[in-house]
Amino acid sequence: MDRSDFTQGMTLADAQKVLWAGTMSDDARAIMDEHVAGLSSRPDYDGIVSIADGISWAKAHPGALNNPTADNTLYIDASKCNFGFLSTADFNEVGKIEPQNLFTNENLAAAAINPFVTATVYALGAVDMILLDRNQRTVQVVNNNATDYDWNTGGSKKRDTFIRINNTLTGINPQIHGFKTYYYGTGRLRK
């Protein structure tokens, strides 16, 4: 499919209209058709992944973090993320990779009432980001090990405690459960 023909959340029928597969065998075509048919049932189909979706995905794909594939990686649209109280003032320079901590008291309070803040803070925590334009408040999430959905312990005492309690309550074992994520698109900060 040509990139310009893709729309997040497009129907299967619309995707099949613009899908170009070139010359391929019948077996390869059948595999591709099966893959395309399953896209709408993925938790990332709408570009955002809830906490429940992430936990379910991890449990359904044990070992995915250590053996990543295109099919067991989740793809998240940065334009649908809510970065809470992170602002352009938290960035020193435009165009430079900078570590950002989304696991703040302000964001945790906001997460209690906003599921998009919850999903973003839960998934990212501490993450590398790039401020693209200070006036437009646009950012890019840097895809590296910090974007792994892995429930690793460590970091601040508050975060470590949260992750340990979360792992106990949800049955997550960080040695088994976890997966790669890929953030695409441009996010926008509130201020």
UniProtKB/TrEMBL annotation:
Q: What is this protein called?
A: Uncharacterized protein
Q: Which organism is it from?
A: bioreactor metagenome
